[in-house]
């Protein structure tokens, strides 16, 4: 049953059987005319008038109190690429059921039939009133940075691109505990981040915020270096506060003498055993690309890695965004946070790491369905 | 408890207690890692790929199979007017719970933060992929006609403005049964429709489609007359196939010798007892404005009306859209109808009327929660 082919077959079969994973249900009883007159007309008119008078009342008397829109343009679906809005829907529904299961949030999927930045922003602004927060999902870089940034300025509810910040919170939490196992301070580490897209950028920013001072970012063209005119704006910004020694070269060069590798490249197998052997002793390897990691965990272990983590559920140390987003949004809704700041995300990563009192080489993070996690993470977002 | 003030107070109290009337729940179990791997990653990737290959598969494997967006721009909320998106939300949620309760449809409210026709159309087009059908709600005329018309052309899922067509289906069904009580054919009746907005326009069109040949439409400026240059485009269109004798004047003039009055004017008390007495004997009076009808039902009865209907639940013969929209959309989703045509709506009105085998003066329609209604109406939409 754990065989990938068997999982795929079972997933197709069950999705057909479910006919969609979500349903929208009533919390109000509708069993007679009296119920109808209170939940619907004429009684509801009083609620409308109350909100017209005091818009804030919507946050206590409507779904806005507890709703999150899970919005994608289908441009970067899982590791599958630019599939468009409809094929992205099963992933968004999956996210929504996790929101409900783990954080009791009423999340609804919105798959946009456009990938134009201006249209995406305009559409999200226009549908925002119903939602208490917005989770952007599976939107390709560099477009995702502008979309998130401008929506944050335009809207009075929190907007968070989970592929950036959810991933960053979980990666930092994992690194905090991995360094605890190794007995090392982050300030003393050279960290190589492979991938300069949504995840790589956010991970790097959060690592720097946490205190990392020697980070090198590599993308498919090589090491990002300040002053390189070929870089787009977000990459140039990234280069500006990393790679202080202005090293040039490829991934193979960056890894020599590094302590930590964090891969979010989407490129399977780009790290080899000989490359791991050029790293400093007892390296930490997070090979997070899905479905196939940058290096097979067994190969990495055999080449000397102290701790290996992947995005997969069939190896120890699974790094999964599900450890972050339910709690982040639970906290944001409960405390009516208007903007989720870097400081809050940093605190969330620390609280998540602290869920494991004694991390070990094969257990640096709690399990995806661990009930303590949401409460711990939510307490940081306020 | 049936006192309006008591209902209002109870409604406010319960809306606060519910904290929104809707919740989004999972139909898939998520109790362990194996569940997660099937409903979410990695299994879901196979479902994404299947839909990418065959987009039609979304209609069986995602929420699109059974979802309706209930969309408003907040410009004509109940009888309350242009309140904007947020105060409209409790009404949209109310609609969504009725969709679920009566037709097991998963409906989600979308309140748009714009009333610009182009922006409304663009936004709805962009969010359409997730939905199996679109219910436009509480959008003011004449804008509603252009929005509905253009979305129908642009989208491959059904789009229906309920304030137009739901109201029309219920009004025609009620009239069919009222005429049965009276023992009269519609072809022999002079019908005065008061109100030339969303509801008045759709009611008139459906009446004409059904066979009514002597319909006069009146708005606040008087009788609509073909050739009157002051009329906007939708009203000119309406005038073109009504009022064949090119009568001019006001409502008081139109009612002289009329057999049926259908009021959707939003103007309380504009019909008086003396006006009813100028109508033909045994007139039928549908005073549908909410919350206060065009004439008090008792006054109308005392002035000689054979049958009186209103939109209110505290009088006999309540005309409520809830008798139409759940069945119309249930049929549209089940039969994967691409466009809901006038012919289907006509058939729906007939089936709805047929739910009452022996109509009487105080019972021309089934109750709002009558379970037979959805099945009957749905069978007409195919």
Total helical segments of chain A: 16
Side-by-side strand order of the widest sheet of chain A:
8-7-6-9-10-11
Largest interface: A-B, 104 and 103 residues
Write the H/E string of chain A, N to C: HEHHHEHEHEHEHEHEEHHEHEHEHHH
Helix content of chain A: 40-55%
| Mean pLDDT, all residues of chain A | 96
What is the chains' assembly state? homodimer
Strand content of chain A: 5-15%
Low-pLDDT windows of residues of chain A: none
The shape of chain A is globular
Q: Measure the end-to-end span of chain A.
A: 42 Å
For the biggest sheet of chain A, the summary is: 6 strands, mixed
Decide which structural class fits the backbone of chain A: alpha/beta
Explain what this protein looks like in three dimensions:
The structure is a homodimer of 382-residue chains. By secondary structure, chain A is of the alpha/beta class. Helix content of chain A is 43%, strand content 13%. The first copy, chain A, has 16 helices and eleven strands. In chain A, the strands form two sheets. In chain A, strands 8-7-6-9-10-11 form a six-stranded mixed β-sheet. In chain A, strands 3-2-4-5 form a four-stranded parallel β-sheet, with helices on both faces. In chain A, a hairpin with a 2-residue loop joins strand 7 and strand 8. In chain A, helix 5 (85-103) crosses helix 14, helix 8 packs across helix 15 and helix 15 runs antiparallel to helix 16 (372-378). The longest helix of chain A has 21 residues, at 162-182. The two termini of chain A are 42 Å apart. The interface between A and B is large, with 104 and 103 residues. Strand 1 of chain A pairs antiparallel with strand 1 (22-26) of chain B.
């Amino acid at each position: 049953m754990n065989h990938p082919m068997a999982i795929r077959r079972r997933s197709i079969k069950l999705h057909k059987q479910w006919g969609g994973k979500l349903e929208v249900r009533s919390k109000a009883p509708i069993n007679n005319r009296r119920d109808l007159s209170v939940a619907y007309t004429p009684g509801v008119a009083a609620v409308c008038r109350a909100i017209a008078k005091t818009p804030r009342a919507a946050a206590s008397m409507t779904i806005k109190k507890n709703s999150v829109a899970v919005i994608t343009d289908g441009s970067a679906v899982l590791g599958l690429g630019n599939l468009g809005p409809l094929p992205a829907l099963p992933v968004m529904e999956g996210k929504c059921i996790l929101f409900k299961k783990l954080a009791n949030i009423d999340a609804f999927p919105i798959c946009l039939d456009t990938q134009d930045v201006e249209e995406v922003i305009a559409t999200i602004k226009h549908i925002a009133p119903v939602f208490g927060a917005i989770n952007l999902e599976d939107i390709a870089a560099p477009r995702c940075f502008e979309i998130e940034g401008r929506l944050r300025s335009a809207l009075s509810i929190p907007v968070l691109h989970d592929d950036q910040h959810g991933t960053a919170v979980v990666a930092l939490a994992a690194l905090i505990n991995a360094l605890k196992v190794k007995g090392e301070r982050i300030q003393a580490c050279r960290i190589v981040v492979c991938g300069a897209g949504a995840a790589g950028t956010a991970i790097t920013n959060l690592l720097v915020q946490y205190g990392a001072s020697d980070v090198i970012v590599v993308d498919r063209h090589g090491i990002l270096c300040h002053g390189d005119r070929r870089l787009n704006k977000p990459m140039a910004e990234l280069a500006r506060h990393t790679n202080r020694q202005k090293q040039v070269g490829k991934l193979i060069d960056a890894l020599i003498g590094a302590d930590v590798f964090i891969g979010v490249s989407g490129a399977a197998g780009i790290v080899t055993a000989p490359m791991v052997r050029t790293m400093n002793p007892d390296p930490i390897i997070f090979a997070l690309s899905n479905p196939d990691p940058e290096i097979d965990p067994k190969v990495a272990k055999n080449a000397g890695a102290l701790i290996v983590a992947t995005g997969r559920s069939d190896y120890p140390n699974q790094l999964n965004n599900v450890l972050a987003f339910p709690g982040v949004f639970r906290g944001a809704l409960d405390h009516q946070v208007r903007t989720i700041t870097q400081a809050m995300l940093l605190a969330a990563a620390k609280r998540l790491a602290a869920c494991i009192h004694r991390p070990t080489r094969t257990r640096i993070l709690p399990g995806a369905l661990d009930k303590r996690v949401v409460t711990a993470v939510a307490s940081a977002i306020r």
